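Memo to structure team: turn this sequence into structure tokens by end of day. - J.P.
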Amino acid sequence: MSLSKVSKVTLTLQEKLDFFPALASILLAGFYALLTGLWRTERQAKTLFLHLGYAVFRKATARLTPSQLQYVSPPSHKIYEIYTKKTGASPQSVELGNGALGHWIGDRNADNVLVWYHGGGFGLPASMGHFKFYAQLIADLKARGKSVAVFSLTYTLSPIATYPTQLRQAVECLRHVLAQPNRSPSTVFMGGDSAGGNLVGGVLSHLAHPHPEIKPVELSSNLGGAVLVAPWTLLDTEFPDQEIYHGGDLITQAVAHPWSSAYLGKATRDYYTDLSTAPVDWYSTFPVESVLITGGGNEIMLPIIQDFAAKFKEGFGKVEFFIGHRECHVAPVYNLELGSKEKTEQGKKVEAFFTELMV
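Reply from structure team:
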């Protein structure tokens, strides 16, 4: 599949006309956040700027369908092209088969490679914040004496394609990196945010327990490590413990049903889609040296993430869990998308984790 033939979503006339009242409601939500944001609590964003950005995203994702959001968002590979043009880097995109594309950020011959799966409920493309995050991570690790490149996956968004398409594409992305000449699995790392964290868990599950519809991956040794930032590993249509949410997160419960339904389609949920539901011994044979799971102190999914991290640690052992104080869902990425210059606590932890494990 060529870059110009990546599948795109189509909308009905009614869905297109709906953008006008939706835009009005989003602007109103932003204006309200601006007025009320001067009196923020610990459960809300650290700055008025972030508070406003979170409110707008929250309203947009609650008001618009996954297809509508996708329709107005440039696809991931276009964002990558914009990023390389802005930074003066040469774009290096690879067709991975099965409709997937991979994009190199940094020197593909670096000592270490980080395969990253972006979030967005499986229905939103990678943002410019993702590519800023990759570049920041590469630069910061270089300052610590670590040579690393990022290989970012463009997978087919839902509802254009449904599970297990995205998991198959994520597996092929990792397989491509592992097939590089002289590339040891110990120098290959995986990372993902939100739905991308789901894919990290799904790929680790496939490596240990091959999915019946996906070709197995043979490893000569364990992967170097894996990071799951605010992983979405339980596709329930409701989030528990709603009292944790006081306007300090990016998302609301309104996204749970449409996003999970669009991803699953007619498929039945299993341990690959919902790693939180797997038995403890499912994790025990994951072929990776160490795992970091992070979450934001103000995010609506924190109770789910905490339960998942505890279960993962019980079954696997080498798992560290970290909570970023007063941070929202996928703050290391979305704060950069908004233009924030301040590093998040979760972002610093991810950097420290990779510094310790990379050669």
